[in-house]
Write a structure and sequence with these properties.
Layout: E1 2-8, H1 12-23, E2 28-32, E3 44-45, H2 49-55, H3 59-64, E4 68-70, E5 72-76, E6 83-86, E7 95-97, H4 100-113, E8 117-120, E9 126-130, E10 133-137, E11 142-149, H5 156-160, E12 164-167, E13 171-179, E14 189-194, E15 197-204, E16 208-216, H6 217-222, H7 228-236, E17 248-257, E18 261-264, E19 267-268, E20 271-273, E21 279-280, H8 288-301, H9 305-327, H10 336-342, E22 348-349
Parallel strand pairs: 1-2, 1-11, 2-8, 5-14, 11-20
Antiparallel strand pairs: 3-7, 4-7, 5-6, 9-10, 10-11, 12-18, 12-22, 13-16, 13-17, 14-15, 15-16, 18-21, 19-20
This protein binds flavin-adenine dinucleotide (FAD).
């Protein structure tokens, strides 16, 4: 089989890249290893996604999928008092809490309707450069002129083609979803800083709430945060978040990487990395999904130097904001978790 563009990964970045290339008339195949079943992390979308979703022509589908409006974020960050930040001054309106599996599936459906051959449940094992393009090793070998790495944080395809990942940290997230008792308000996003990391609470559609603990991987392992007793003990030690653990837990604890990195270069001869593969940001920023949508869309429009400049400048902006926001928490500045982030100390290139 021969195509113009093969996209590996059907998260928001890959689906939007496939949509963009298909709308430009390219023959596109999109490989997504999952069937979009099960919990996906990354549910809170800031107001900045609204113009992006409208420009992509998927606004009506998005609203039909039943996202919950988000009007503000509250946090105990930099002090014990809770401060609220409303979206009332945002030029794009309010944000959203989504069911991310539903959101990602909606974008893949839009790519399929635009003509992309969307193959669910098919993983890309690797790519090999051949004259005039690549052979993509998937369920059947596919020849493609252009390959898009949209596989998320690991960015294995781009790295196998020579790109290098500058890793900033080893943040991990250990999360649990609760079914909130009927009639109990689910509230809005809440953040609480603790000495070795932070907690995050977010409503989900259908009366659910996500509670997540973020910490460096080494601390998380030592404190047993990925175990039921360790996670619950850490939750009990919080000042505020523990009050939000109401209702019935749904499913086991979920442990996922939330580490930051940037890739250089973000595209090369015949290949482009989009979304988290190109720049993975701290979930604290709630900026990952917006970057995924924008990078996927730009990759299809301007894959060369303009795209690399866009990713470089997004990475520089992100690092400055990350260091500033972690620097606001002076109570725990003696702890490496806060100190390294405030100082924008990188880890390694791999
Ligand atoms: C704990 C956590 C919380 C977050 N919270 C938020 C938030 O509230 N708001 C926000 O905006 N962002 C948040 N983010 C970030 C956001 O989820 C990501 O930035 C966004 O999902 C990136 O989209 P993507 O398409 O690049 O990658 P992903 O969403 O990771 O998608 C990658 C896709 O590729 C598929 N895949 C991987 N390897 C292969 C392969 N070899 N072959 C085929 N398919 C493959 C995967 O199944 C997946 O569907 C959060 C991230 C984490 C870890």
């Amino acid at each position: 089989m021969k195509v113009d563009v093969a996209v590996a990964g059907g998260g928001p970045a890959g689906a939007v890249a496939a949509l963009g290339f298909a709308r430009r008339g390219a023959a596109v195949v999109l490989f997504e290893r999952s069937g979009y079943d099960g919990l996906r992390m990354g549910e809170t979308l800031p107001p900045a996604v609204n113009p992006l979703l409208r420009a992509l022509g998927v606004w009506d589908r998005f609203v039909a999928a039943g996202p919950v409006p988000s009007y503000q974020t509250a946090s105990a960050w930099g002090g014990p008092e809770v401060a609220e930040r409303s979206f009332v001054f945002s030029p794009h309106g309010h944000g959203w809490h989504t069911d991310r599996a539903r959101f990602d599936r909606m974008l893949a459906d839009a790519a399929a309707e635009a003509g992309a051959d969307v193959r669910r449940g098919v993983a890309v094992r690797g790519v090999r450069r051949v004259p005039g393009g690549f052979v993509v090793d998937a369920d059947t070998p596919v020849r493609a002129e252009t390959v898009v790495d949209a596989t998320g944080r690991p960015a294995r395809i781009a790295r196998s083609l020579g790109a290098r990942r500058e890793r900033l940290d080893r943040l991990v997230c250990v999360a649990r979803v609760f079914a909130v008792p009927p009639g109990t308000p689910v509230g809005d996003t809440f953040l609480e800083a603790v000495p070795d990391g932070w907690w995050y609470a977010s409503p989900l559609p259908e009366g659910r709430r996500l509670l997540a603990r973020f910490a460096d991987a080494r601390f998380s392992a030592a404190a047993g945060l990925a175990t039921g007793p360790g996670w619950s003990a850490a939750l009990s030690a919080t000042a505020k978040t523990r009050e939000l653990a109401v209702g019935t837990p749904i499913g086991p604890l979920r442990v996922v990487s939330a580490a930051s990195h940037s890739l250089a270069p973000a595209s090369g001869p015949g290949w482009i990395a989009v979304g988290d593969a190109a720049l993975a940001v701290d979930p604290l920023s709630s900026g990952g999904a917006a970057f995924a949508l924008e990078s996927g869309s730009r990759a299809a429009a301007e894959p060369g130097e303009a795209y690399r400049t866009f990713v470089r400048s997004a990475a520089a902006g992100y690092r400055a904001v990350r260091s500033e926001v972690y620097g606001w928490e002076a109570r725990f500045a003696g702890n490496a978790f806060w100190r390294d982030r405030a100082a924008d100390r990188g880890l390694e290139v791999s």
